[in-house]
Design a protein that fits this description.
single chain
């Protein structure tokens, strides 16, 4: 079968259309791959968002726990301060009591010494 120019032109047109279709197919594959990658990235982003929300809730619980511990520590500090004041007051009272007792002992010693002196003088 002899080739004529019109057939060559038709073949060239068909080859051009095939090339265009192959180009569009390649573009479609790239777009599809990009869309698939994009969808994968979106899934990863959603996972990251879920992790961030979970971590945010955990941080919030930790902040609440820290606030509770700070409040408890403040109450303990107040209690220790109160106990310290009571102990200091008791210590001061005991010091005063010991000073008083020492004074009594000193007086008693002086009385005993005077009595001994009186007895010694009486016996002479």
């Amino acid at each position: 079968m002899p080739k004529d120019e019109s057939m060559d032109v038709r073949i060239a047109i068909l080859e051009s259309k095939v090339d265009d279709l192959l180009g569009k197919f390649e573009e479609f594959k790239r777009d599809y791959a990009t869309k698939a990658e994009f969808a994968d990235l979106q899934r990863q982003i959603e996972g990251i968002r879920a992790d961030v929300e979970r971590l945010d809730r955990r941080v919030q619980r930790l902040e609440e726990r820290i606030a509770h511990l700070e409040e408890r520590m403040t109450r303990l500090e107040q209690r220790i301060e109160s106990e310290f004041k009571q102990v200091a007051t008791k210590a001061e009272s005991r010091k005063d009591l010991l000073t008083f007792a020492l004074g009594i002992i000193t007086i008693q010693t002086a009385i005993n010494a005077a009595m001994i002196t009186a007895v010694v003088q009486f016996l002479r």
